[in-house]
């Protein structure tokens, strides 16, 4: 039991690599490994500015030809999620490698091994879609042999899972039954309906459907991160908090107060 606790981060890495290989192929795994090796090699110099430049330059190659076409050629197949998984996996890999490189620069005695970077990067729940847990936090939590839970923690995790499932069902129902753009796109229908019906439609759009459309991206991010966070909490990790809704105005006050002029 103690051995399994010690090597659980290694198990996470192996499982993640096998899952990525199954979904995207060995060529894609080799591309991801090349990004990890590149930024790991640069981190050995222990210059933070160089790690920043290397990471941002590597990210920029996904917007520059012929680099983007060359890298995209490592993935075969035309399945629907291919572009999303390709860019998500590569982008988050580079950002995680930057976090590792910056932490390695701060390490006073020696360097972290590249195995630690691979364990960190190939943790499957975070691999394709994030969120980004910085390397220092992941390293401590993933290598913690004391895997105990607080009272009621499993109940809270189960409740969160059910909540996210309920939100997913509600969003699916809204997308299927509420067509906010259908009536405006049909001008013949607008001309034939009464003023009262048109006014009620506008009122409903302003107070209801338009608001749902406004926060739709936030709902997607909150549900996606929420599901991922719930899974990672089952692995005894403390993931980053989900994004806040854009309609919560106090977020702006928090943002302003956090700035130091």
TrEMBL record:
UniProt keyword annotations, A-Z: Membrane, Transmembrane, Transmembrane helix
InterPro entries on file: MB_O-acyltransferase
GO terms for MF: acyltransferase activity
Keyword Membrane: yes
GO cellular component labels: endoplasmic reticulum
Spans through the membrane: 12-41, 47-64, 122-140, 161-184, 196-216
Signal peptide positions on this chain: none
PANTHER family from the UniProt entry: ACYLTRANSFERASE, HEDGEHOG ACYLTRANSFERASE-LIKE, B
Name of this chain's protein: Hedgehog acyltransferase like, b
């Amino acid at each position: 039991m103690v051995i399994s606790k010690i090597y659980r981060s290694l198990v996470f890495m192996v499982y993640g690599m096998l899952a990525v290989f199954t979904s995207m192929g060995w060529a894609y795994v080799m591309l991801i490994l090349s990004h990890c090796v590149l930024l790991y090699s640069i981190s050995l110099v222990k210059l933070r500015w160089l790690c920043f430049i290397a990471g941002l330059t590597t990210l920029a190659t996904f917007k520059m030809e012929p680099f983007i076409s060359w890298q995209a050629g490592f993935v075969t197949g035309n399945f629907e999620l291919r572009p999303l998984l390709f860019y998500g996996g590569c982008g988050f890999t580079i950002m995680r490698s930057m976090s590792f490189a910056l932490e390695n620069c701060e390490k006073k005695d020696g360097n972290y091994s590249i195995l630690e970077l691979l364990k960190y990067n190939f943790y499957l729940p975070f691999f394709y879609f994030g969120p980004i847990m910085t390397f220092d936090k992941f390293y401590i939590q993933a290598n913690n042999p004391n895997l105990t839970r607080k009272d009621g923690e499993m109940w809270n995790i189960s409740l969160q899972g059910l909540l996210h499932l309920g939100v997913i069902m509600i969003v699916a129902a809204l997308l299927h039954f509420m067509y906010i753009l259908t009536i405006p796109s049909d001008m013949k229908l607008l001309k034939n309906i009464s003023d009262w019906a048109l006014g009620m439609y506008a009122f409903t759009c302003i107070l209801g459907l338009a608001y749902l459309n406004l926060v739709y991206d936030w709902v997607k991010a909150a549900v996606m991160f929420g599901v991922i966070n719930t899974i990672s909490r089952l692995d005894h990790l403390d993931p980053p908090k989900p994004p806040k809704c854009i309609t919560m105005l106090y977020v702006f006050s928090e943002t302003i107060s956090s700035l130091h002029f």
